[in-house]
Amino acid sequence: MPQLTALDAQFLNIETATNVANIAGLAILDGELDRADLQALLGRRLPYVPALRRRLAPVPFGLDHPYWAQEDDLDLDYHVREIGLPRPGDDRQLAEQVSRLHARRLDRSRPLWEIYLVHNLSGGRTGLYTKIHHAAVDGIGGADVLAALLDTTPEPPTGREDPPPGMGEAPPGRDEPPPGQAEMVARGLARLAANPARAVRFVAEAVPHLDEIPVVSWLPGAGPLSGLARRLAGVGGVPGLPALPAPRTPFSGPVSQHRRFAYVSLPLEEVKAVRKAFGVTVNDVVMAVCAGALRGWLAGHGGVPDGPLVAGVPFSLREAGVQEPGNQVTIMIAPLATHVADPVERLHEVRGAMRLIKDRSALAPARWLREFSASMPAALMGLAARSAFALVGETAPPINVIISNVPGPQLPLYVCGNLLLTHYPVSVITDVSGGVNITAFSYNGSLDIGVVTDRTMVPDAWELAGHLRAALDDLLNAESSLPH
Fold first, then answer.
1. Rounded distance, CA 115 to CA 24, Å?
2. How high is the pLDDT of residue 237?
3. Which of 7, 230, 302, 304 has its CB 3.0 to 4.6 Å from that of 373, i.e. a possible disulfide?
4. Pick the catalytic residue: 65, 134, 339, 423?
5. Rounded to 5 degrees, what angle do the CA atoms 205, 378, 199 make?
């Protein structure tokens, strides 16, 4: 029977009026999409996507993490909605509407997702905004939810058996029902009794990884202690990580209830030209473009800090070919060379930082986030998580920005026969992560980037998005000046 992991439950526990754990995507389609057609497609595809068929089943008194219960009578009229923009239906109007939708919490008495069809876009386009709670999926799982709506040809199958491309011919079996309330309580009490031993085990296992854990890594002696613990455990060749106190910026600290969203598409061939010219990876270029954009924005809003910003970079812990439910993700911290003026030097600084954390993760996978969550008593997690978020966000935010790069399919895709033009991620900002999230998704020759900001910290997200284009241009200009 499916039960939320401790990490899944954390995404429920951190939610407040201002910290909202929705992850989403904005697809822009060529042509008009009818709501009835979309609902019919979903009706055929839902059996293949368990995350869309589950609702929360809380444990009495909060003694344990909730379970998932399969929802057999899914109300598609509730989950699939439509709205229309006033003319002219331009990109700024669309982004403003998405900003409002993204800040709203999902109804926990229902399956934790919603889809909005947005009509009246200029050029005869249609917007498709899909959001789902982070407790149900991580970034990779969220991509599977999007994939459930997509076809590789403009003529989708119309029969009752309609598997999404790449998801197999047969849908997963039914979930087992969650236990009754008495059994839930008994299991919760048993888990509570085991928590002290689990917490002790986590502390022992965490010592070799102290330099990975935000805030803790700043403590005097954390780096040498974790290095000594690794050597005593016979774990060699693991590079140490530098202590990275995050400088204060205009987007540091607790976020408000209000969001701003903007987006930009960059040609993937231009990103690859920079990659090839300087011998780096596509992800290095994406990170360097984000560093350049943040530097450009900061230069006009209070000045660029003398040291690097600190980026939180999500990493998937999923093993290739293994489909596990829930969140299989951790976050690593990396210096973002915003203090470096030269774009090529900045790119190589970013490359070195990303190589370091990838080497570290390959040799000793960073599972501290999942293990820390599992060591906390479920009955205390909600209050502890919200209190810790408020305290850390107010006093010592460990990172300045979240940056993520998700590779996507490089072929044209369709929704109910309508070509998918672009797909922009719409992600999470919190008190701890700061008021900016930049997430990129590559699709069919384009790098589609979604920028989410806190309205009070970065009122014009489009300005920051514009700096992304300028930062890539700086690298392209440097590439064109190289001898060929």
1. 9
2. 55
3. 7
4. 134
5. 20
